[in-house]
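Encode chain A's predicted structure.
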Amino acid sequence: MKRAAAILLACGLAVSARAAETAQERGKRVVNEALQALGGKAFQQMEDRVESGRAYSFYRRELTGLSIATIYTRYLAPAPGKVDVRERQAFGKEQKDGAVLLTESGAWEISYRGARPLEDLRYANYQDSTLRNIFYILRQRLNEPGLAFYSQGSDIVENQPVEIVDITDADLRTVTVYFNQNTRLPVRQSFRRKNPDYHDFDTEVTVYAKYRDVGGGVMWPYDTRRERNGDKIYEMFAESVQVNQNLTDELFTLAGNVKLLPKPK
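Encoded structure for chain A:
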């Protein structure tokens, strides 16, 4: 009886403590719990990652592209407000159907014709999306000065109970992240970005599902879906995800003999 009473008392104290949390404290707690669910130190010490699977692209809800994709990611030393990661997206079973190379200093589309720099807007959107990506925030930005967390409370989203947290950086970029209350893992994120053509805002949503241990206790989603203004624009179903594969600089550098093509106008 004494043990049961002690347990009930401890639970009651925990509930009382959480009830006394401010929105900022609750937001920070939920984010820290998510980091632990993803692997804690093992997640933050992840040096690189290789994801391979089927990638689909859509326009106005119609399928416009299908490819076997392999995405190589390598993390660099973080700097506040900067994109410090390199990524190479290779297409085709033998990775001979072209690639996209994204680095901290530039980005190119690579084909048999050569390497063409990405349009300025496309590269800027990539950087903005990366800075607001919850996994990038947890890996690279969590201790960044000016990063703030604000709990929006709990809700039911896509038939699962979630904790909702707004994360805002020193430059006032905000992303709203939805964490599953049971697993503590991020299942959805959304943010608004100004559309330069129509001078209004696009709502960008990414949904994550089917988490698996990909090595050393690191959890990673195998299914990723992106939407813009309610329309699906991209989806990837990974078949393999590996971390800490000792990826080299050569993979993220243009070959010396590649032909440099002019940037699109």
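The chain is about 20% helix and 45% strand.
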